[in-house]
Structure formats: structure tokens, C-alpha cells
Amino acid sequence: MGVQANTRAIEKDIVTDFSERMSYASYLDLDTLLSAQKPVSRPEHHDELLFIIQHQTTELWLKLVLHETLAARAAFDEDEIGRALKCVARVKHIQKTLTEQWSVLATLTPTEYSEFRRFLGNSSGFQSYQYRAVEFVLGNKNAGMLAVFDADPAAHDLLERLLAEPSLYDAFWQCLARLGYDVPASALDRDVTAAYTLNEDLLPLIKFVYENHDEHWAVYEAFEEFVDLEENFQLWRFRHMRTVLRTIGMKSGTGGSSGVGFLQKALDLTFFPELLAVRTEIGR
């Protein structure tokens, strides 16, 4: 039977007794999840819930991004480029969702935000250890960031460990070397605790792959996936900066940064600089 009186009948085999069965709510631990929003403004301001949920959902997505990027690095360690790129492809879709979320926060007007901003104290997205962890895995390392997490031993330990480990990009070059590609020693022996910077020694190999992509398709595809990953990350950073500008103008951030000015500087940070630099060389 179809729909009658604008009502869909409950099918007879649909489970309704969850007294001894796992339900949707119990599987997702919704009691915990939905009770985690605790506005601090007094009196409680209507728009603070939006602000909290925006940042909590971002942290959930960052948890998955970190999960996938670490899995991609592990796949490169096992010389499984295809499996690594599957993880990267998932991250790219998550990034699009994260970027679109800024449009929701942008509905928060300056007057609405000012009603509860003072209650936030010095809490700031700058203090997101998962965001820093993702940056570290992608190669944008900064040992100075660890001081922000001195009061959070678990976060500090995670970042300290990731600081000392090879980045996703480092693991990729090591993988190519094992597969027989002529990866320069400067890429294989670099100090992995330092932020990744442009290595011109890699440009001939990258150019060769681009110009002979049919014979080196997996590596060629990896290059383009990395470029997508970086571009998506920069779009997220840009939308973040513009949303902050729209909401608080040029005020300082709650965490002590210069606000928009500090966020603008992040647009100059890079993960895979050779993959962009080689574009100037191709076709010459």
C-alpha cells in the first residue's frame, strides 16, 4: 500500500522493542553527545549553542581527518599507494564539509556574538590540539606550539610524538625510494621535526613524473591528490579568516592572537611546496 492520509505505515518487521537490543541512540552514545553542549553565558544567550556545536562538530571531523591521514601514512610505509590515496580522498570530502560549515557560523552577527564572547575567557580554536596534530602529520610542524598544551598532558604527548615522526609527505618520498624512484637524499634524510620547506632537489623527479604520467600513473595521481589536499586546506583557512573578519572585525582573538592578521599569515603556510613550484617548470 502507498501513503494514505499523508501517513506512512510502520512495516511489520521494523524493530520497536529495544529493552534488550542495541538502539541507534545507545550505539552512538547520544546521551553523552547531546549533553556535551554547555553554554557558559549568563543569562544563557540563544546563539551560543550554534557556536558550541560548530566547534564540536569541527573537532569530530578533525578526529576523522587525523584517523585517515595517519592511516594514509601507514599505507605509504607499506608501499600501498592506492590504499593511501583512498584515505586521502576521504579527507578531501571531509574538508569540503568543514569549509561549508563556516557558512553556518557566518549567520552569527557581530552583535549576537558580542553578547556571549566575553564569557569565553581565553578559550580559542587556536588551542585545538587535533588541528595542530593534522598540521603536524601534513608536515607543517612548529615545536613552539607544544607550550600551548603544557596543561594538557595527553594533547602535549600526542603532538610531541607527531613532531618526532615523519610526516605524510616524508612517508610518501620514502615509499617512492623503496619502489625504485631516484628520490634525492636531501628528501630522505631531512630533520622530520622541522617544518617542511621547499626542496628544489625534488623538482626534476616531480617534473619527470608529470611529463611521463602514463608510465607513472600512481605517483602522478598521488601528486594531484596532495595538491587537492593542500588547496582544500587553504580554502578552509581562508573561510575561517573571512568568517572571523565578518564577526569580530580586526579585534584581537580570545586566545591572545592578533585575530584576522594572524589567520592571514596562515595562508602563506604550505604542505607540499614542490608540487606547486614544478608548475612553473613544466612546458618550458
Automatic annotation (TrEMBL):
Known partners and oligomeric status: Homotetramer.
E.C. numbers: 1.13.11.11
Record organism: Rhodococcus jostii
Cofactors that this protein relies on: heme
PANTHER family: TRYPTOPHAN 2,3-DIOXYGENASE
Source organism, top-level taxon: Bacteria
Recorded name of the encoding gene: kynA
Name of the molecule in the record: Tryptophan 2,3-dioxygenase
The entry's keywords: Dioxygenase, Heme, Iron, Metal-binding, Oxidoreductase, Tryptophan catabolism
Cofactor remark from the record: Binds 1 heme group per subunit.
